[in-house]
Amino acid sequence: MVLVVYLLFTALALLATYLVKAYLDRWTFRGFGSIPTVAVRLPYVGNALHIDMTKCHRVLSDFARTYGPVFRIRLYKEEILVLNDYKSIHDALIMKGADFAGRPPMYRTKHAERNIHSIVWQTYTDKLLFLRKTVLRSMRMYGSGLEKLEEKCRPDIHEMMERFSATGGEPADPWDIIYDAVCNVMLCLTLGSRVDYDSINFQRIKDMNSLFNDTFGSGRARRLDHIPFLRIFRDDCYCRMQEALKLRDAFWEAELEKLKKSEEDRDCVVQHLFDSLGDVRTMKSQNGSRPTTSGISKTGTTEAPGRDVQPELNVTPTTVKEVFTNLILAGTDTTATALTCFLLVLLHYPDVQDRLWQEINTVVGVNHLTSLADREALPYVEATLLELLRFISHVPLAVPHYTTCDTSVLGKSVPANTTVYINLWALHHDETFWNDPWRFDPTRFLDGHGKLVPPSHENRRRLLPFGAGRRVCLGETLAKNRLFLFATALIQHFHFQAENPDQLPEVDPRTYEMGLVLHPKRFKLRAIRRQKS
Ligand code: HEM
């Protein structure tokens, strides 16, 4: 009897504690002031059971209709602030940039120390700033660097067009053709040379991308962050992550060997990063003299450098490998998906395809490929690419941010070490701002004279497909330029038709599946070669 009373009393005490905690949690927990929480938080799991992680961006956008543009959710132990409109996103990322520039610690990124060595997963540190600066400098997306980009894209644009031509207008799935070309441009920029499409190494990088897509993109893999011990039971996401890392390492070893043996000095991101290991050592060395071996010297090894590397930066060959992985992953899937969606849009909106063709044919013709210098003279193309990024919003929640100090958003306090989701999907489909947001309409970005509206125009300011502020996408300029070069080349040379209009997947991004980015369902099209006039 005593035992029963004791157990009953304990159960009641636990329930009372939970209810009080849940109440406090709702309004003031950890100093959140008046930011509302999504109701019905269950013990331990929080809101996890109410949120389908494979369409998290849509569920959160629906919550914003009930709770307003700034609210909190809880996934297991993690308290997450969600920002859904322009005002709050602008306040956090632009006005208080450094406060919101961290990345949350996650099991998946701590694993293999990716949070310490990569750009994407590293929180806001001096090392991150150093890596961002070094990569941006070596990609040189301005001045003569842009001509180099055209040069680097050309072989793969030609290859892509040959592969489309080879279909002879018969139905073909465009995904692999586009993906291979985009991926090879990334390999060329990072490693300084293309990789043969038929080689084992190219297949390795494609398989790695696809496995990472599953483990870092898809919402369901987040379970590993919340329940890391699942790995003991050979959780399938965990196994895929391990397999992806194995493929990456095999690829890396093989390509690094080639880079070391290469006679010419390669002008590429990886070489520059290895050179910067030397710079980091120089910064630290007493006499300031440049070290004789950089991480990639032909005679030297790629082992972790010794104690003379600035310890607080800790830039090592592992860092270079991780940054390479980031750039390949972030730089391939995003652009390949955008271009595939571009084709799907052309099939659904033939009037857009006709207008693009007319503009390109009139301004550039078909005798040579467009160059980046043509961008200004092709406003409809530019407006179409902007609308594409708004419409598909294929990185719907950006990459999770993390507060680096106690701060606030729109005057409401937010404690340090809070995970923050930036809901770009909600921003770009906000029905109170965008007229009919689910319609693809490039003219949103044109003025009454058919000119592109300036960057200060409200529609352009509210378009943030690459995020904003301190963690804005590192490849924004590259992505925009590459999209332009690839999309115009496709329109110049082909007219695209649906294989069977009744079987075409929907263009509406609400039907896309979540991976690293949102993907439409696979489809086939006919690429009909245009006749030269
Ligand atoms: C259509 C193409 C692309 C889109 C829509 C896109 C979008 C984004 C977004 C939304 C973020 C997260 C920003 C944030 O955390 O707030 C991001 C981060 C990033 N992107 Fe892109 N991206 C694209 C192409 C590229 C390319 C081509 C590269 C290759 C250089 C790249 C490299 C990165 C990197 C390294 C980051 C992490 C930056 C950091 O954490 O500091 N992206 N991108």
TrEMBL record:
Its cofactor is heme. Residues 282-312 are annotated as: Disordered. It comes from the Eukaryota. Keywords: Heme, Iron, Metal-binding, Monooxygenase, Oxidoreductase. Residues 283-302 have a biased composition (Polar residues). InterPro entries: Cyt_P450, Cyt_P450_CS, Cyt_P450_E_grp-I, Cyt_P450_sf. GO terms for molecular function: metal ion binding; monooxygenase activity. Heme binds at residue 473. Belongs to the cytochrome P450 family. This is Cytochrome P450.
